[in-house]
Amino acid sequence: MQFDPAHLSALAAIVRHGSFDLAAATLGVTPSAVSQRIKALEEQAGTALIIRGQPCTATGAGARLVRHAEDVALLQARVISQLSPGKAGTEQPVVRLAVNADSLATWLVPALSRVDGVLWDLVIDDQDHAADWLRRGDVSAAVSGHPGPVPGCDSTALGALRYIATASPDFVRRWFPDGLTTGTLSAAPVLAFSAKDRLQHRWITQMTGERLSPPTHRMASTQAFIDAALAGIGWGMNPEDLVCSHLASGDLVALAPDAPLDVPLFWQVSRLMKPALQPLNSAIRDAAAARLQ
User: Fold this and answer.
1) Number of neighbouring beta carbons within 10 Å of residue 140
2) Tens digit of pLDDT for each residue in 107-159?
3) Model-level pTM?
4) SS3 state of residue 74
5) What proportion of the chain, given as a percentage, has pLDDT over 70?
6) What average pLDDT score do residues 6-15 get?
7) How many other C-beta atoms lie within 10 A of the C-beta of residue 264?
8) Residue 67: which pLDDT band, with cuts at 50, 70 and 90?
9) Which of 56, 73, 98, 108 could form a disulfide with 130 if both were Cys (CB 3.0 to 4.6 A apart)?
10) CATH number for 208
């Protein structure tokens, strides 16, 4: 089955902008033309591709076709740049990546800034689950915590992101007056990014050999983690780069200064898309080498 590139572009534009009207304006055609293209594409695919609403969103099949359209656009842009260096396409291709929030907050943005001519669509997920997006074909590459390559992908070791268990001095005095014990770590409120975030539990097990379930605040924000620790709401594993100044000033303290948690990271990239993503692959490796353990 071969899909019309104009139909795929219409689908991608609707999902990206959330409406038929905005997609039409982006493509330089009428909303009626966009509707006709989507109708033809849905008839060819044999299923609904768009959930009409405010905003319009893709069905599961529609999302997969959008990924296909974006991959085709990226491959085409790569070919154009090789055949005619310096010549830009009419529209920037979209590259969708799965990354963890702490990498985005510490070392990843400089790598993205080195790659011109593309638009980034970042899916934020725990590093232990980022590879799932690759398995489903929802992204072209991922920063993952798993070393083994996903089928159809290549995996490159990047280094380790160092975390420090941190809390405010008042929090430590209240909850750990006699130091870190199984009892105090079971009772002291802990911060977690989401239900998937197991870093705090991994560190507790590293320290005690026990699997504990302390009361947990969930805050899906790297900055909120630091702010919550500063405010004495709970303790959490924070990237060393982001809390070094707070540790130096004494606004935060390390619960165990000699016991960081180093989390290995790996760059997993679709083998099919790897040549088109070569500038990004190089930038990722360089940025990781400069900032990770």
Assistant:
1) 26
2) 999 999 999 888 898 999 999 888 898 888 888 899 999 888 889 999 999 99
3) 0.79
4) helix
5) 94
6) 86
7) 16
8) confident
9) 98
10) 3.40.190.10
How far from 2 is each of 41, 68, 69, 91, CA to CA, in Å? 11, 12, 12, 22
Domain membership of residue 276 (yes or no) is no
Whats the size of the chain, residue-wise? 293
Whether 143 and 285 have beta carbons less than 8 Å apart is answered as: no
Q: In terms of DSSP H, where are the helices of the chain?
A: 5-17, 20-27, 31-45, 60-83, 101-103, 109-113, 130-135, 169-175, 182-187, 199-208, 222-230, 240-249, 278-291
- How far apart are the C-alpha atoms of 273 and 263, rounded to whole Å? 26
Identify the CATH number of the domain in which residue 46 sits.
1.10.10.10
Q: Which of the listed residues 67, 88, 109 is the one where a domain comes to its end?
A: 88
Provide the CA 234 distance to its chain's centre, in angstroms.
25
Please indicate, yes or no, whether residues 165 and 250 belong to a single structural domain of this protein: yes
In a domain, 242, yes or no: yes
Lookup: tokens for 287: 């940025």
Residue 232 lies in a domain: yes
Number of domains the chain is built from: 2
Q: Is the peptide bond before 5 cis (omega within 30 degrees of 0)?
A: no
Strand-pair category, 153-167 with 236-239: antiparallel
